[in-house]
């Protein structure tokens, strides 16, 4: 199990959920950036320095001298050092003829060299064609290395998200293929258009149905599924702000409270697979709903004993991953689904009980179809990788804090995780080494929800601190190479022989 917030439970007990006290999805003014004033120490404080008054930097102009033995005349140095000793050792002044001979020898043979540490003349500069030829060879033989991507350490934009429910088991944020972000704040669902920054209100629910417990965009980016605390699911057309239909009582009822009252099993997780909307509820059931037909419940998965808080379909749509508050992770195959399963029938393809806390964070790898990443709650704090074909656990990493959400980079082999206590950070990992590339901080409460833009570059994160932050963490995708021009000749459809 994993600890959730009292925000949702308190609102249910009172029967009221307050409306946002301030306008939602407005830019939060940021504090002015104050650069740190630092001083660079030098090796020799007494040397001449260039001091910048604006920053307080001390820049040393000179550097120590490193002698080069190849530039020394060792024979000349030996002669000059030993000749003086010989004269002093004799104890007698040199005769005039000997002194004249020494001067004549120094002028003609020694060329009047008196310095011991002397530099040789510089080598002649090579001709220009040699440089050009060398540059041409190096350009052909050496391939330019891939530049390391710059990852901004601060959020690109911060929006206000008042009254967002601080509950670990819910899923209140999603980014559709039409580049519109949906977020649930209390009883209201808001839409934020990333192309122009416009905000609109989709629906505000009454107290009997709310609060909103999950949102999920259909693959077309136009229709939005809204899971409710009353166990109903609403389907909305976002372009016309029109309610298309309501799936009533999908997850039955649950009994709770000291007075034995019954209520609907809230729908905390949703996932689309073409026209199939899969829902996970507090009753532990997973239900496939075909939204095209009247009797929408077509299949039911039974395996969790407590609330289902994580649902993700694989890219192929053949496998479904589910995580629950019972610390279990299931992988279901669509071919094994049954419309009316018996209580003792095992429908799951794999059942993993390695996590020690609730499993909410799930992410299918975009470049390896059978690779699944899962994250555990506060008592587990690990990210695990699974081969869903064999059922093997490939790796397990202790992150040191509650794992709330996971996202794969669509352009690089990287994984982004969001965390709760105590740093409330986003961590970017290199896969498969799982080396930390960057840690993004700014949220002051656990980062419960993450969503990825359609182009895969920007990540939106929402936390209990009532802020929605946008991070340019995954960078820009590489431009696709241009296809080779097709020949328009009479044999353009045939391959040319070379």
Q: Can you walk me through this structure?
A:
This protein has 498 residues and is mainly β. Helix content is 10%, strand content 34%. The chain is built from 4 helices and 32 strands. It has helices spanning 7-14, 74-90, 96-108, 128-141, and strands spanning 49-51, 58-60, 157-160, 173-175, 180-185, 188-193, 199-204, 212-217, 223-228, 233-237, 242-247, 253-255, 262-264, 267-273, 276-281, 285-290, 297-302, 308-313, 319-324, 329-333, 348-352, 359-364, 371-376, 382-387, 392-398, 403-408, 414-419, 426-430, 435-440, 447-452, 459-463, 467-471. Strands 3-32-31-30 form a 4-stranded antiparallel β-sheet, with no helix packed on it. The protein is elongated.
Q: In a few lines, what is going on in this structure?
A:
The protein has 4 helices and 32 strands. By secondary structure, the chain is mainly beta.
Average residue-wise pLDDT: 80
Backbone CA Rg = 36 Å
Main sheet properties: 4 strands, antiparallel
Uncertain segments: 5-18, 31-62, 129-142, 255-261, 483-498
Helix content percent band: 10-25%
Residue share in β-strands: 25-35%
**Tally of strands:** 32
Whole-Å distance between the termini?
A: 66 Å
> Which class of secondary structure composition applies to the elements?
mainly beta
Q: Helical stretch count?
A: 4
Reading side by side through the largest sheet, how are the strands ordered? Answer: 3-32-31-30
Tertiary shape: elongated
């Amino acid at each position: 199990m994993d600890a959730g917030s009292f925000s949702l439970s308190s609102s249910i007990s009172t029967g009221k959920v307050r409306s946002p006290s301030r306008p939602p999805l407005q830019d939060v003014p940021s504090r002015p950036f104050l650069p740190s004033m630092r001083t660079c120490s030098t090796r020799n404080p007494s040397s001449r320095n260039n001091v910048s008054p604006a920053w307080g930097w001390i820049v040393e102009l000179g550097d120590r001298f490193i002698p080069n033995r190849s530039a020394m005349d060792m024979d000349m140095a030996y002669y000059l050092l030993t000749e003086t000793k010989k004269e002093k050792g004799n104890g007698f002044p040199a005769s005039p003829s000997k002194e004249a001979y020494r001067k004549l020898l120094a002028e003609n043979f020694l060329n009047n060299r008196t310095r011991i540490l002397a530099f040789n003349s510089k080598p002649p500069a090579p001709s220009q064609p040699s440089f050009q030829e060398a540059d041409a060879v190096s350009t052909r033989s050496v391939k330019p290395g891939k530049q390391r991507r710059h990852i901004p350490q601060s959020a690109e934009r911060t929006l206000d998200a008042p009254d967002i429910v601080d509950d670990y088991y819910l899923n209140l944020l999603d980014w559709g293929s039409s580049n519109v972000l949906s977020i649930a704040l209390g009883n209201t669902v808001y839409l934020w258009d990333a192309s122009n920054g416009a905000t609109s209100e989709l629906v505000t629910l009454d107290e009997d149905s709310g609060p909103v417990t999950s949102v999920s965009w259909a693959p077309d980016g136009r229709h939005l599924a809204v899971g409710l605390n009353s166990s109903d699911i609403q389907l909305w057309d976002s372009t016309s702000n029109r309610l298309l239909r309501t799936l009533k009582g999908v997850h039955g009822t649950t009994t709770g409270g000291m007075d034995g009252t019954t209520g609907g099993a809230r729908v905390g997780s949703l996932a689309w697979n073409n026209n199939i909307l899969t829902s996970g509820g507090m009753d532990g059931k997973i239900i496939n709903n075909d939204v095209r037909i009247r009797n929408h419940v077509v299949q039911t998965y039974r395996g969790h004993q407590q609330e289902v808080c994580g649902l993700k379909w694989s890219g192929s749509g053949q496998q479904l991953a589910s995580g629950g508050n019972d610390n279990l992770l299931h992988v279901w195959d669509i071919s094994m689904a049954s419309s009316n399963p018996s209580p003792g029938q095992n429908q799951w393809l794999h059942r993993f009980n390695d996590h020690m806390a609730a499993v909410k964070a799930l992410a299918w790898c975009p470049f390896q179809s059978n690779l699944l990443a899962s994250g555990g709650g506060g008592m587990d704090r690990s990210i695990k990788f699974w081969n869903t074909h064999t059922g093997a656990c490939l790796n397990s990493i202790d992150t040191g804090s509650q794992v709330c959400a996971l996202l794969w980079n669509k352009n690089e082999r990287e994984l982004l995780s969001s965390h709760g206590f105590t740093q409330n950070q986003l961590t970017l990992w290199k896969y498969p080494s799982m080396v930390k590339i960057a840690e993004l901080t700014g949220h002051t409460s656990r980062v419960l929800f993450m969503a990825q833009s359609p182009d895969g570059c920007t990540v939106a994160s929402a936390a209990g601190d009532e802020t929605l932050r946008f991070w340019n963490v995954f960078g820009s995708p590489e431009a696709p190479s241009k296809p080779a021009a097709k020949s328009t000749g009479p044999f353009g459809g045939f391959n040319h022989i070379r």
